[in-house]
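Lab notebook, bench 4. We co-purified these components, and the gel suggests they stay together. Before we commit to crystallization screens, I want a quick structural picture of the whole thing.
Request: model the full complex, all chains together.
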Amino acid sequence: MVDTKTASGQPERLQLLRVLGPAHIWALGVGIVLVGEYMGWNFAVGKGGMIAGLIACWVAGLLYTCVAMIDSEVTSTVAAAGGQYAQAKHIVGPLMAFNVGLFLVMAYTMLEAANAITIGFLLDTVAGMQGHTGLHQQPFIVLCVMFLAWLNYRGVLATLTFNLVITAIAFMAIIALFLSVQFGVSSVPLDFSAVTTDPMPYGWIGILASLHFGLWYYLGIEGTCQAAEEVRSPARSLPYGTMAGIMTLLIAATMTWYVCSGLIPWEYLGQAGTPLFDAARVTGNRGLMVLLFIGTMFSTLASANGCINDASRAWFSMGRDRYLPIWFGAVHPVYRTPYRSIIFLVPIALIFALGAPLDQVVTFSILSGLLGYTFMTFNMVMFRRKWPLDTIKRGYVHPMHPLPTIVLLILCATAYVAVFLGYGTQLIAMVSFYIIASLWFHFRRYRYVRRGDQFTMPWPRPEGY
Amino acid sequence: MAYKPPKQSFAGQIFDVITLLVLTVGALYLPLYLGLAGAAKTPAPIANPTWEALGQNATEQQQWAALGITDPAAANDIITARFDYSFSWVALVVMAILVIGYFVLVVRLSDREYRDVIAERFGAKKK
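Here is the predicted assembly.
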């Protein structure tokens, strides 16, 4: 995107090319999220048992279906790059937009750190299987983050195209494992006896608690709306692509639960770093092990790459709008990438990747996502109130309003309680962080923001203002 | 008349960057580093563990072996570890107040800022 001069001498920002269709939106959503099948979701089994893991998978699927419905309406109308950040600027206000920008940055940066931890853990596991115990994971974690940051620094088109290919391979690996196990390739049979002998080790409170990590199956699907400005037909592509993505992930998540729960004792599964690779190990089939090793590597690399891309663009957008020092709003003169934002976020990702356990980092990412979904509920209500259906042209109107909003709010409230059970300190730390950051923004930073520039949509004045 | 923001000095920008870094690391990483945060999952290992005593059937024993754990003592901590979900209702209410209070704070302050934005974009509201 470059600036040119108009006839009047005013700089005019060129529009992004509208080249994407529903399939691209589907690929974008599934590409970022698929890693959730390869690691992290299984902590839901640890928090509540085998049955709880499956219930969490489906309840979280319902939560994300509501997210997709709401997001499709708002995004197909606020068709601007930046997704929820742009929505918050136009519907709620600058401070909310600053918070939503931070949610996106923290959710994606922590997901990037989780991916790097998983790569280090996987290499350590494989080295141990080859007889080289005690592998130092740290150099691989640093190498992974630095390499992907460098790729993003140099330009993103080729790496995101490559992302689509490796995501497809990772998705096929899950299907191949499922079919192989069904057709008797595994030397160890599927065993679901824990469903009857130890169905709910924590009782119903475990079912509730497991929803916390159930979100990990789908976290990031809302990233589809980041491409709103580049979609040919937002009214058609965004809802179709996002809903198709949710359905794909629901199927993949259920298959993942089935294979892993059948092949791995739930106590081990509940704390495993790479559950799908572990399931392949249990089959005793070397081909499957190699395939799932590749699948885990590809899904984590693709996700981390997408995370650096999305987090740096959110940070860059906030810099460009002066929500953060404008120094971050710079574009590289040659590569046309937000290079300062990319570099700035590297040490933050590394601090958490090198110094925090996987479940804690995953929790920070989930919490930022959860705060973002909570924002969507009142954002939707305010959107319909400020611009009723007949006042502006919407690309898509989601049915049954306000039912999805109410269901989403109830599920978000339940998810907060789920996080509180076992990870309450992280919840308090995270919310305290956002409160302090909000006060910092409102009382110090906002003075540098140009007021009128925060509303760019060609809409009428909002009702009530 | 449109609001003209002051130009921030380079030193001021550096100060803001450092503030954000300190805030992120201080609020999120320090509690982890100091061991103040963490899941309350603690093992309750049994004496003289056997697979049967740990509740693992023949197929599950095969699965443990395939995962590289053939000695039940090595699986003792993993199998017996449990979260402690006992909680104080006061802590739950504090958590709820914190989350709700956070959103109320952000929406109210945002609304004040939003009125400035709308006034500048659309002009003062006609009475």
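Chain A has one domain: 20-222+229-389+398-449. Worth comparing against the SEC data before the next meeting. Residues 403-443 of chain A form the longest helix (41 residues).
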